[in-house]
Structure formats: C-alpha cells, structure tokens
Design brief:
PHP domain protein; 9 helices; alpha/beta; TIM Barrel; 280 residues; 5'-3' DNA exonuclease activity; PHP_dom; single chain; 5'-3' RNA exonuclease activity
C-alpha cells in the first residue's frame, strides 16, 4: 500500500479543488490519501464524492498551533468534526487568518507593493486567506517572480517586514482537543525550522505525555540527518513515524506520493481513532 497522510486543496492554501486532488492521488499510484487542509474540513465532502475506485480517503486537518513563541502545525486525523470545543477553536483560527491577511496587505501597501485585499480574497476563493494567497497576489503584481520569494524576511516570512501574527492554539491544548474528539494527532514537519528541529526532546516528551501519536519524519523539507534525529527521538519516546508529501498542487510541484507512511503505522493510527473512519 502507498499511503500519503498530508495534502492540501483549495479549501485552504492548495491550488486545486478537492475532487482534483483525489483524482491526482490515484493517478500517482496512491492507495490512501489524507486531506489535511489548514484549520478546516470544508473540502472533505467534495473529495469523498469524487473519490476514485481504489483510493481510500482519510479525513484530516492541519491545525495552526504555537509552542511558546514558535509556530508549529499539528496534523489531526479521524476526529469528530462536530466536537464543539475543537470546532470552536478552528472557527477562531480561521477568523484570525482574515484579520492577519488584511494587516499584511496593509503592510505591503506601506512598502509600495500594489496588492489589494480584494485580489487576495479572490485568489483564496472559498478558503480562509493564507500567506500563499498573498504571495500569489505579489507574483501577479510583478513584485516577485515566484511564490517562494515572498517567504523571506524582506516580505512575509515570520519576522519579515510585512508579516503579522495571528491566533494559534497552544499545541498541548490542541493535542488534547484532538484526542477528546476521537482523533489522532501527529506533529507536522518538525524538522523544517530554519535552525533545525522546531522542538527539543524535553518539550517533545511533554507532547507525547499529552497524547501525541507521532512525528511526520519523512517530509520533502527534511534532509537525511534530520530524519535520523527525528527517528531516534520517536523511538526514545514511543512515537510513530509518518511520511507525507505535504502537497499543495502547483505551489509544491504536484508531489503527491513523494513521501509515504508504512502500512504498519497506518494500521496503528486507525486502531487509535474513534471519532471518524476512512472513506472508501
């Protein structure tokens, strides 16, 4: 089985509709795909309705979190989307995204960048506004040539000239909420920080104690030494190791299936989930 547990559609900051994402996943030879849009499950119904034969869809979400001053992301799988506390926090995060997006556009305007909130909102469509939508507006305005160039200190990287903070859940609180909703939490790309690992062993042990299931070890942004360090930490703490493409469509070069999760880890994840079941 080929299993990819991290992907995005245009229900958040991916470039393609959920129906196209699941069709591409099957063409890429995947047997299982998790749709994990940022702070929303809005794309799951469309993905399920378009699900091609032979592909299993795992309902999921990527939650925006913080660990002290550091932003981290938590992948949540097979939770009950109607759980009131988790649903309320997701709504709060999405509302904060809109406020943050407006402030970043204002900062860009102050720097002489001719983008408007209306342009950004149009690029986002039905999704909550994210930084990739702002980056795409900057490309359309001719300020930068590629989306990646926006994510620098010059523009909208954390601490950058046009960056603005937004609300994010404390990651321990998020782990407990996901578990309370019957879901299974995995720390997303924990080795993709500029200074190496986003989290040290002591803090990771706290997350494991709070109910963290695993670490997303095999990720396109992790080099071989980072993967070795993460596997060693996971083994010490009894955490599972997952692998995923973190595909965003055109933004990431259509890389569904580039990294995968073992069937054994997938079975362990299914055994711990009580909030929802895979589709298909």
């Amino acid at each position: 089985m080929r299993i990819d547990l991290h992907s995005h559609s245009n229900a958040s900051d991916g470039t393609q509709p959920p129906a196209d994402v699941v069709r591409r996943a099957r063409r890429a030879g995947l047997d299982v795909l998790a749709l994990t849009d940022h702070d929303t499950v809005a794309g799951l119904r469309e993905a399920a309705e378009a699900l091609p034969a032979g592909l299993t869809l795992v309902p999921g979400m990527e939650l925006s979190c913080r660990l002290g001053p550091t932003g981290v992301h938590l992948l949540a799988y097979l939770f009950d989307p109607a759980h009131p506390d988790l649903a309320a926090e997701c709504a709060r995060i999405r509302d904060s995204r809109a406020l943050r997006g407006r402030r970043m556009v204002e900062k860009l305007n102050e720097l002489g960048v001719p983008v408007t909130w209306e342009q950004v909102r149009s690029l986002a469509g039905r999704a909550a506004v994210g930084r990739p939508h702002i980056a795409r507006a900057m490309v359309a305005a001719g300020v930068i040539d590629r989306v990646e160039e926006a994510f620098t200190p010059e523009w909208i990287a954390p601490g950058g000239r046009a960056y603005a903070e937004r609300y994010a859940l404390d990651v321990v609180t998020a782990i407990r909420l996901v578990r309370a909703a019957g879901g299974v939490p995995v720390l997303a790309h924990p080795g993709a920080g500029r200074g190496g690992l986003l989290i040290d062993r002591a803090r990771l042990a706290e997350l494991a104690e709070a109910g963290l299931f695993g670490l997303e070890v095999d990720h396109p942004d992790h080099d071989a030494p980072t993967r070795r360090r993460l596997r060693a930490l996971a083994a010490e703490l009894g955490l599972a190791c997952t692998g995923s493409s973190d595909d965003h469509g055109e933004l990431t070069g259509h890389r569904l299936g580039r990294e995968t999760t073992s069937p054994q880890v997938y079975e362990r994840l299914l055994a711990e989930a009580t909030g929802a079941r895979p589709i298909g």
